Amino acid sequence: MSGWREGTLSEVAEIIMGQSPIGKTCNSSGVGIPLLNGPTEFGIKFPSPVQFTTDPKRICELNDILFCVRGSTTGRMNWADQKYALGRGLAAIRHKAGNEYQYYVRGIIDHNLPLLLTSATGSTFPNVSRDQIEALEIQIPPRPVQKAIAAVLSSLDDKIDLLHRQNQTLESMAATLFRQWFVEEAQENWEEVAVGDYVELNRASIDKSYPHKTIEYLDTGSLIEGKIENLQLLTLDEAPSRAKRLVQHNDVLISTVRPDQKHYGIIKNPIENLVVSTGFCVFTCTKIDPHFIYLLLTSDEMTDYLHTIAEGSTSTYPSLKPSDIGAIVFQLPPDDRLREFAIIAHNSWEKIEKNHIQIRTLEKLRDTLLPKLMSGEVRVEV
Question: If we measure between CA atoms, which residue out of 369, 12, 377 comes closest to residue 155?
């Protein structure tokens, strides 16, 4: 491969390690520069800050790669859509030649992430240092090839991002209709009922009769605001003890740990060996439309309410009991209005699921293409 050479990531990229500002300079009222502390603020592509600081110690720039360097989420990434102050759990990574090469750097990190995580230190949770990131050994092509690789990966990511944004719009429209019909236009004579009266909680779990030797495992951290980010292929023997819950089409999942992190979603057409963590509460909607329950339990107001309950628990982490969610009371709309909403919601989620299928296809293409691009096996036009 003409012009390719061995080198390290430090030769093409700059790494800025985060440093937490002093606590008294931080606030949640929008004063100063937005502060990111870790992946709890991450979205599908861009973060959503909840804190600010008037005295930032480290700052990322627009289009920097945001990389988690500490804890169980080491290796998770987002893109910076503006300047942010960075806490010590994050690093910013940028190509030395400018933004048009950023997706080449992202490709390097994605391709070498397993190796980087293997080199991480820490007895309980991994930590990655600046030296470890900079010392990552890579194949470096000429600048024009780097730019061409970046263009290919950027094009795929743009298509994936467009589909995600379409899904966000569809779900937002359904949530707006839900609020209008069932909150703003709610009638005083609507009966108050409990969620638990209309759903089954944690209906099925793995037992001795379970027929599969391998499972596709969904943990709580891999489901974020309706999007499944990752499934782990495991044998039953190597699966964690929390890999127990069985789910079916249209089951609603909500994480019982730290509900403010929004690990929730609706399961659509699951593969037969899908197993989810016992950290989820699984709602099988036997008497009511699942999209109604999903939107009821995942509004911002409900998320705040559930987090308040969770913070009052005696557990190590803020957590809920399934009965806490089952006890939530809501006003039951008339059957005809529920049926009308169910039709609209079903159509919306049908489109969302079709988009998810396209997203998974594009992600598989990207994952197949990535090592070949990074090694030069697949040539790109310069």
Answer: 369
> Among 71-80, 83-92, 207-216, 280-289, where is mean pLDDT lowest?
71-80
β-bridge partners, 276: 218, 245
**Average pLDDT of the residues in 175-187:** 97
Q: Which of 91, 118, 166 is nearest to 358 (CA)?
A: 166
Average pLDDT score over the chain: 93
Mean pLDDT of 90-112: 96
pLDDT tens digits, 197-236: 999 999 999 999 999 999 999 999 889 889 888 899 999 9
Cβ-Cβ contacts under 8 Å for 380 (sequence gap 6 or more): 145, 148, 149, 151, 152, 373
Spatial contact of 246 and 204, defined as CB atoms under 8 Å apart = yes
DSSP-assigned letter for residue 209: T
Q: Which two tokens stand for residue 203?
A: 């209906």
Tokens of 322: 């399934």
* CA nearest neighbour of 57 among 13, 27, 25, 31: 25
What distance in Å separates the CA atoms of residue 245 and residue 277, rounded to the nearest whole number?
Answer: 6
pTM reported for the whole predicted model = 0.85
The 8 Å CB, 24+ separation contacts for 54-58 are 54/25, 54/27, 55/21, 55/22, 55/25, 56/21, 56/32, 56/85, 56/86, 57/18, 57/19, 57/20, 57/21, 57/85, 57/86, 58/16, 58/17, 58/18, 58/19, 58/85, 58/86, 58/92
Query: Cα(224)–Cα(191) distance, rounded to whole angstroms?
Result: 32
How many residues can be counted in the chain? 382
Tell me the C-alpha to C-alpha distance, in Å, between residue 45 and each of 62, 71, 76, 266, 308: 13, 20, 11, 20, 27
For the chain, domains (ranges, CATH) are 5-140 (3.90.220.20), 191-332 (3.90.220.20)
